[in-house]
Structure formats: C-alpha cells, structure tokens
Amino acid sequence: MSESRSAAIGSERQMGAVRKDDMVSPTLRRRRLSRLLFQQRERTGLTAKAVAAEAKERTGKVRGWSESKVNRMETGDWKRLSVDDVELLLDIYGVTDPVERAGYAGLVREATQRGWWATYENVLGTGQLIGLEAEASSIRSYQSMTIPGLLQTESYARAMAVASSMGEADDIDRRVEARMLRKAVFSKTDPPAFWTVIDEAALLHITPELRDQLEYLVEVSNRPNIGIQVLPVTGGLHAAMTAHFVVMEFPTPDPPVVYLEVATEELYLESSEQVRQYTRRFDFVQASALSVDESRALIRNRLSSL
Region (Disordered) spans which residues (predicted)? Predict the structure, then answer.
C-alpha cells in the first residue's frame, strides 16, 4: 500500500471518532428556532419592544427582558436560551397547541447542545460552517485557489495551516485534526450531495510532496455523491473571479445558506435573492468547467507531471 494511500485511510478512520449522533447540528437548530420566533412575532404584528414589555409584565420582573434580548433570540445571537423564555414568548404569541410547543422545547434543547466542533473553537472560531455542513443535503462549492476543505488530505491541510499561519506560533495539529473530522459528513447514512468546481490554479499550486491530494481527488471523484469539475485557466474570465463561495441546502423546513470567507471573518447570506444570485453564479461557473470525466483526466495528467 502506498504511503499516500495509507495516510488517506488514516484520515478516514479518524473521522470515525465523530459519532453519528454528533452530526445533529445545533447551528441549524439555532437558526431554525430563531427564524420561527421571528415569524411568530411578525404574525402577531407586535414589535420587539412591545414583546419585551409584555414579558416584563407577565413575569413581574423589571430586569431580564428587553427589546435587544428579543432581537437576539430572533437572530440567533444568544449564548444561553431557556425553555422557559421560549415558552413565555409562545404564550405572548398565542401558541397553545401542546405538540407545537413541545417542538419548540425540543429545538431549544438541541440548539443549546455542543457539537464536536465546539472543542476546537480556539482554531475554528464560531464553527458555524461545520454546524451547517453537518446537516446539509446538498453542498455546492467554487474554489479559486485551494482544494475544498471537505476534500483535503491531511498533508495538504497541514501545508495550508502552516502557510496561513505566516510563521506565527499556531496550533497546527488541532487545525488539521478539525479539518479531517469535518469529512465525517461523508460517512453518514445519507451523506450530502457534494459538487465542487475547482479552478485549475488550485491544482497548479500542489507540489510533489502533496501528490496524495491529487490521488485523493481522483479517488473520491468516483463516489456517487461527489462531483468534481475543474475550471481550466485557458478558459479566460468567468462569473466567479472575485471570490470562492459555498451554497448549502437543507431538508425542509430550513432555507439554503451561502457561505463566504475572507481573511478575517465568515459571512452567511440567507435572503432568497442572495441565494439565487450565488446559485446562478455557480451554474455559470459549472457550465464553463470541464466535465467530470475531463476533469478527472486533467487531475491525473497533473499527477503524472509531478
């Protein structure tokens, strides 16, 4: 067995450290709960300020409720959330059905759990992207200069972590470990459909010592739920020259999300128009890329040239 193939198998085994139950996403539950609370308030026609005043009156407490607290609950910008708080809002909104109220209580419990990625917050930041990947049914990605995180080998992820640290002391091992654990989404009983368009420039940056990354791309491109297309540099300008992005879709009732990454922050776009624009952009880029078979051949050619 080749050294690169052995390393790939090691990474796959490492993914087994993430239990199936850990793939339930508190991130997605948080977004769903916040969206539902906002919709309930909108339905009643109440302002956040009016809801806070009503909550104060019902509880008899001057402190504990404010307009900003209601807004935070509706945007997911909260650190702790109690079932009692949500049930009080449901009382104000006139939600009396026991089954519906039990559903909200379940969402609160799931939204306040800690995903496996929480233990890597010192190297992952918010971990929102991983939380969304955990339950996505479809992931579409365009990458301009790097291999998508979900398809990276351990050696490539390590080289990327070292390069991005710019010589500063950093927890490289934990960054790499977290990146490998992300790939557990493909070990689920019903893994997401993952389709990526990779700019050929990303392949040209792969050096001989990272050849296992190209071998891995060839291998996974044969999986039924993974599609890899390469956008050749000879194709000229295209619809996604400015940045890479990820479009994630989820089972009903959760709406799709677009993820954008810049050097110092993560951006999540959720409006239907924003999602439509990036979905359309992906369609254009995909149409400009080589077919899956042609892309596999190009990766093999690049591999043989190393």
Answer: 1-22
